[in-house]
Every structure is written in structure tokens, then in C-alpha cells.
Amino acid sequence: MDPQLSHYTQFFIVVTNLCKTNQITPEQKSLLKGNLTRKEEKICRMLMQNSGPGKEMQLREALLDYLAAQNKQIQRRRSHKSKTVHFMKDVAEQQEKQPEVVPPQESSAQPLASAAAVMIEQLTGVLHKHIDKHSLLVPEDKEKLIQLSSLISKLTTEQVDLDGVSPFRFRYSSENSRLAEISEKDLDSSDEDVYEKMAKGIDEIYKELKSIFTGNLHTHLLLMQEDISYENLYQVLKFLLKILVDADEFTFFIHRDKEWEVYQSSNDSIKDVTPEEAQRVTDELAYIRPFCIYRIDPKQRQYPQIEDTCKTIGYAQTSIVKFQLQLKNYEVLFCLHWADKDKKNIKRKFINYANMYGFNKDVTHLAQFLVETIITAKVQFFNPLRFADQVQDIGISFMRISRFLLVEGIEKVLSIKYEVDKEQTFSTDENIRRLKEASCVKIELKDSNPVTLRIKDMDLKNEQDQHLYQVIIQIQEKYDGYVKLCYEKSAFYKYFLRTTDSLLFDFNKQGELIFLSRPISKSLKERYNINFDPKAILYNKISYQDIFAQNSIISNIEVNIQNIHENRRNQYLSNLENPQFEIFLKVVDNDFKGFTVIFHENEARRLKQYFMALKIDNMTNDVQKEAEANKSLEEDIQKQILIQYNKHQTFKFLNQLDETQDVANSMIALFIPENELSQIRHRKTDGRSPEQQNKDMQNDQWIIPPQKQKKIGSSVYVKCQLQLETVDANQFKVNESDSQLDLFEFNILVLDSSQEKHRIVYSILEKNGFISQYNLNKQCLAQFLSVLQKKYNRRNNSFHNYDHGIAVMQSSHFMLQCGKAKQFIDDFRRMSTIISGLCHDVSHTGRTNIFMINSQSKLATRYHDSSPLEQHHAATTIFMLKDPSLNFLNSLSKEQTQQFRRVLIDNILYTDIKVHFTLLKDFESRIKDEVTKPFGTGDDDLKLLTGMIIHTADFNGGAKVFEISRIWSERVNKEFSAQYDEEGRLGIPQTPFLKDLDKLHIMAKSEMGFFKVIVRPLWFTLNTFFDGFLQQSITNLDNTIISWEKIYHANLPKEERQQQQQQ
Ligand SMILES: [Zn+2]
């Protein structure tokens, strides 16, 4: 139950008016807002029933009724004897002293809730012992105990509404949370310095909490690299974890497709969990409530299997939480590990207080982010901005909940001298009066979940007490101001994070970089001579002088700062002299607060307007107005976000590949367009000329000495003597089982009869209605297929054979069934495309184009080194169709024949890997702009679409389930290995990435990269266009990439593993 945004807006307007007209007190206003923020059921229901257009009056009445009811409940609660609900700390401390004691001591004096919690914990312990599989209970009794146990855990972890209004949450776990930043020995309460030490202690807590936001911004800066790799990202995640909760490592179990896998950050590996272990993990998980955070006590071994699989034994502390992954419905058990026992870091307490103060969802959100990022980044190319946006969100939510650490910290420090009570409060008039009456000092920490500290023996008439009190109040105000600032900054930053055509640098008043809105593009770096190494942030502060090498920018900044100091103007100033970049100086209350430099690549005017609008919003004091303004701004730019995340994905991708050293030596290099590859080579060779490079290549060790060289030319292949087999057209008919031809799962590898394979080709054509619609000649088709099979199979290629041709045909047929494809592609083009799939590799030599060119083959000569294989496949097909006995398309008109020929040639030429990136880039940029220039209106669009279909279908084997995908991978690698050997024999340059593919770990690594960089983006783009029609392939591909990674790790030779660890 969640009211709509319009309900919220109406609610805030009505409540503000009620308060302005004194019908409700400010405390009642904040009670209402607080209850709505934490989505209290009654108020949500009330809001849903009483709001909407013209219902302001009704809502006002309902709100007043609601408040009256609340008041009654508070009175009733107060009349009850044990009405004050204490935090569980007392329980925890008592337990720490006497962990095995069963009855709660002094139960009459102890608050009821605490006593109940102790009982519940102990009862749960007893239950667990009996549910344990070694127990002798009969299954029926055991079942009942399990039910009882889960009921208890449900009761104790969910928000327990003790008397109708309490937002207090019970804690369910045996953790003993204690702040220990100041040891009690250090502080003797008789010591005169104790006040000073307490004041200092509180100040330190404040400083440490402030470092959450700065640390988070550093995490953000680390992400701002255009060529960010998976390894960088993984380091950034660990850094984030350290910054936020001071944890060292994490482990997660993930349950998908009925199997459990475990990921460990300590060595960044993902492994399968054996079925037996998985069963025990599942059993143990039954006792763990979702979103509730548990601390594992290494001595107690409560979850032996989970602990063993996580290897928790090496860690001082481990906390776990269970949740479902939002997007994918995977069940996840997430574990955080702390290596040492150091408790001085207050940020560690986040986890311990999460259940108690009800921010376990925020902690889970961090865990979700880590899991999702790891599993996403492992399988796909990523844009750092996508993660930066989420890092901002996480940082701000941790800043918000750090309030509770402040409360706990202050309490801990004060408890050295005073008796301190902590209480959940409501800011009602009566509450405040009641607190005033009592003889103690209260400090209220306002929040949607407010807390009051009651310091019993603090005497404000005593000067020292008074001073300390002032310190606390000041720290609290400073902290509130800081959190507000963080919110403002975060909103500001997030806007720029989502703006593609500008680049923002934010500096503090010391001139140190604190924020960068996106990775700096190469062109900007060059144009303005900008130096920025994000990794430097880990060791040093980066100043504007380090970043801008161009004097004009530095002097511009310095002159402006000088002006500000002299003029003392209370506003943002901007330098408009240079339209390419602007400098904004931040001056608040006559105080210089730092400056911002924005580079505009486009749309400077629009951005400036946004900037000014944002600044005005930030200056208003009305929180509500501000929130609304931010909301509309947010909505306004929301649409842009998706576009920006994906805009020119492939183009960026190419740039990124360009920067990656490994690429030139991997199979991916094959796919990089010629001109870009030569750029890479050029750069890599420090500006040596191509001629010089060629000479160097001759001298390289892998070139076989000339005397061993054979004469190279056409006769390098062993031709397989294959008889032309007779195909019986009478057997051409559609079988019942052919319905599987309409599914992606169809697997050609299970067929061994060639008659059956031919029949399947016929069946696909028949099922599409082409046989009758275009009057296809069955006799000629039979002949055609007989010749086609022979031409495909004559070299005994393990991959590029008749099976592959049929598989590509079937996959094209599958894709063309989807609604979006039918919307654009007419019957004739569909038939032409399906037949292109069948014929696209006919007469393949089992070697790559590079080989064909380097070996000076006939084909390369004939086609001038330009797509020799693809031109040959297309030409062979057309040549065959010229033979009247094979031309099954002989009923087509002259125009139709021409059109068929054109579609066939275009499609087959698109299967050259050299045009992969161009095709993907062109297709992406064409489908982006669906509003102003709808897709599919001309021949060019359709050429791109069918090209995409054939090129994607060419990788159908890889997109099948891993068991099948692996077979296709092994087949193609067999061809590659054979090529490498042959290159050696012929004395032509041996393609480096084809080396050692017979070694499993090398092949696995090559496949991982190939699928992640080439195959998946292709399927992903087409799947987006087809509205999710190809989702199964994406799931399969993700699984395949992870499976190859597991194989890689499992087969990595010992020496290489050691080498990697040393690095
Ligand atoms: Zn192919």
C-alpha cells in the first residue's frame, strides 16, 4: 500500500496550511510527516481514502480525526505501567555478562520488553538445538518446532506494535552492540579533565561521521575513468565498503536456476556449491529472516554450512543478511567480513544498529548494490556513470542513518559520567511537557524516528555540565547542517552526473577536487590540457593546479577568487567571458566556500539555466518546496538518463577497447574496424611507421625461418572427397515434431541424418508458407541442398559446416517470428533473410579472413583482400542458383530475383566480423531516435535490421544453454588452433590470440572476453529492439560467461595463479 505522488503533494499542502492556521501544532505536523515517511499503515490508508482532486476539505477532517485518535492512544499507553520502551542495549549488556543464564534477573525492575527479548532469544536457542538434524525428535514434532521458531522470528523481527503507535523495533540476534571508541579506563569520572575528554570524544564522533560523505565522494572519483575495467571496479567496491562500514571482504551466495553459487571478494572468484552443501545452506537459511541482519558468533557455530562455505573462520566478525535481488528474483545471502577486532571505528556499528533502529533496508541496499554490480560487471561492458549514480544514493542514505550512530556515540561518551536513558519519543505537546517535568536533562534528536537522551544527573546550574551540554547541542546543530549540505550537494551532483554534454569539476575552498561529474573525454583532455588520474585520490589530494595545465584556466580561477575576497558578494559568480567553460564561485554568508568549473560541449545555455534554477531552490528554506522543485527537476531530466546511459554505447565501447592493452592480443581485435586497429598498433609501437612495424614483425621470433616456408597459394587445404548425395524431394514434409523449429532451444547437434537436416530446411520454408506463396521448386530445392551440403562440408570444418548453416537459418526464422520483426519485414524479405542464413558460410575454408589475406589465397586476390570469405559465400550461393537444376527460386519475377540477390549479398557481407562494430553502432544510433525518425521506413533501415538478425543468429550456438554453447565454442576453437599451426607451417604471421587455445584455461579466458565484449552486446541490442523477445539468450549468455570464468579459475596452472596473486 503506497499512496501516489499526488497524494503526498496534497498531504503536504494540507498539513502546512493546518499548521499555518494554528489548527495543529508544529509537533503534530512533524508527527504526521514522520508517520507518513515511515509509511505507517493507518496514515497511508487514510491518505488513500481521502485524497484526490477536490478532496482537500475531506483530507483536512481525516487528518484531524487521525491526530485525535493518536492522542487517545498515547494517553492510554501512558496509563499503562511499563510504558517506556527501552532500547535493547540493556539486554545485550546483561547477556554479555551472563550468556548462559536462563531467567531474566530482576524482572520486575527490568522493562517488560527487554525481559521478553531475553526470553525469546533463549527460547530460540533451545528450539534451534532441537531442530538440529542430530536431534532425536520425530519428524512431525520437528516440523512443529520449525514452525514455532519461524513464527517467533517473524514476531520479533517485524515492526512490533506494542501499543498501537510505537515505531520501535525489537532486535532479533544475539549481537552485543557496544560503542567502544573511548575506553572506560581512559576516563575516570573523578578526573577534572573528564569534561574535556567527553567534549573531545563527541567532536571526534562528529568528524568521523562527516568522513562518510567525503569517503563516498572519493569512491565516486575513483569511478571517473573512461577506461574503467572490471578489476578497477572491483577495487572501488571494496574501497566503498571500507569507507561506509569499515568491512574488509564480502561473500555472497546466489540462488538461481535451482543452483547455488558462492562469490568471494577475497579472491574475486565465483564457484558452484555442491548439491549436498546447497541443501544444508537451504536448511540453515530457513531460520534467517529476510532483511534482518545477523551477526555470526564464530564460537557458537549457529550456521555451520554457511560459515564453512564462507570460510568465516579467518575473520573476527561476520554479519549476514538474506534478500531477493530486485530485478532478477534471485535469492541472495550476503555476508560482510571484518578482518580484525578493532572496534574503534564507529562506522562498524552501522551493521550492529541496523535492526534496532530499523535501517536494515539501507544496509541491504548496499549489499544489493555490491551483488548486482559484481554479477553485472562480470558479464557485460559497463558505463561507470551507471554505478556512480548508485554510489551517490548509497552515500546519502548512509549519511542520513549515521544520525543514529551520533545518538549512540553521544550516549556512550556521556555514560562514563552520567546515567543516560535513551527513549523513543514523539514530539507532541504532552510528551514535551512530561519531559520538562522530570528532573533530568533531555536532548532530543529529531528524525522520522526521533530519539531522546535523558541524562539523569546532569545539572545545568553546574558550569561544567552546562558547558558540556552546550557542546552537545552545538555538535548536533553542526551535524544537522552538515547533513543538509550533503543532501543539497548530492542533488546538485546527481543532476550533473546525468548531463552528457557538460563536465563539472567541484573544488572545496582549499582548491581540492571533491567531485567530477563524468570521465573526462579524450578530446576535452587534449583541448584544455587536463591531467586527471583518479587513482591519485587514494594517496593525495588533487588540486586545481594539478588538473589544469593551462594557465588561462588557473589564472581565471585565481582572479575570480581574488575578486570574491575583495568584493564580498553573497552570490554565485560566473565568468562568462569564455563560453567554453565557466567558473562559479560559491560564497555563502560572505564566506568563500569553493568553486566549480564547468566545461560545455553543447547546450551551454540550457545547462546554465538549470544551474541557476538549482541554486535558487537550494537557497529556499522551505524543505517541502525544495523537495518539490527537486522532484520536478528530477522528472524533467529523468527521460534523459536512459538515453545518456546508453547513448553511443558502442562508440564509447570502441574508445574503451582502444585503451585496453589486452585487446590487441585477443580475439576481440578481429572485430575492431581496420582503421581503429591500425591506430592501436600505431600507438603501441610508439609512432613507428607501418613499414617499420612490418619489418619488426619479420624479425619476431614466431616467424618460421624462410627455408621452412612452403610455397603458399591455393592448395593449402586438404580437400575432403565427398560424394554428392541424392536428396529425395518426396520426403519433404512437415513433421509434428517440427514445432520445436519455432523455438530458440532447437539444437541441430542432435541430428545425424543428412536427409533429416535437408527436411528441416524444407520444413522451415514450408512453415513460413514460402513454398506455395513463391511457388518454390521442390525438385530444385532438393538438388540445391545436396550441392550446398557438399560445399559446406568438403573441408571437414568442425564449426563452419552445414550444421552451422542450418542453425543460423533456424535462428533467423525464430527471430523473424517476433512481433517487432513482422511489423517491419515483409514476407519476401523474410524469406530472403532466412535463405541468407542457410547459405551465409557456404564453402567456408575454416580459416579467418586474416589467414586468407596473409596466405595470399586465391580468394583474397579475387576480392582484393576485402571480406574475401563473405564475398565468396555470397557469390557461391548466387552461382549455384544460376544453375537451372538448382534454382528452386525459378518462379520469382525478374524484379524479385534482383531484390533477393541484393538482400542476400547485403546480409552475408554483414557477417564479416570486421563490420561488427560499424553495424552495431549504426543500428544503435538508428533505434535511439524513435520519436523524430521512426525506424523501418526505408530500405536502409531494413538492411540494417536483417543484417543484425543474420549477424546475431551467426552466434546462435554461443547463446544456447552452456552445455550446448560449450560444444560450439570447442568446435570453433578447434578450427582456430588448426589455423595457428598452419600459419606456423606456412611461415606466415601467427595470429597471437589463436595461440594455445587447446589449453582449457586459455580458451576459457578467450571465450569469457569474446562473449562479454562481442556476443552479448549484439544479443542485448537486438533484444532491446525486440522488446525482450530474446531474453532467454541473454540469460544463457550471462550464465555462459560465468561458467567460462569458473572453468578458467579451476584450470589455471599453479604458477600462473601465484603470479597473479603476487601482482
Ligand atoms: Zn557463420
From TrEMBL:
Keywords, ordered alphabetically: Hydrolase, Metal-binding
- What Enzyme Commission number(s) apply to this enzyme? 3.1.4.-
Pfam families given for it?
PDEase_I
Can you give the residue ranges of the PDEase domain? 718-1055
Q: Could you name the active-site residues?
A: H800 (proton donor)
Q: Per UniProt, where does Zn(2+) 1 bind?
A: H804, H840, D841, D954
Which major enzyme category is it? hydrolase
Q: Which InterPro entries match?
A: HD/PDEase_dom, PDEase, PDEase_catalytic_dom, PDEase_catalytic_dom_sf, PDEase_CS
GO molecular function (one): metal ion binding
Q: Which cofactor does it need?
A: a divalent metal cation
Question: Which PANTHER family does the record cross-reference, listed alphabetically?
Answer: CYCLIC NUCLEOTIDE PHOSPHODIESTERASE
Protein's recorded name: Phosphodiesterase
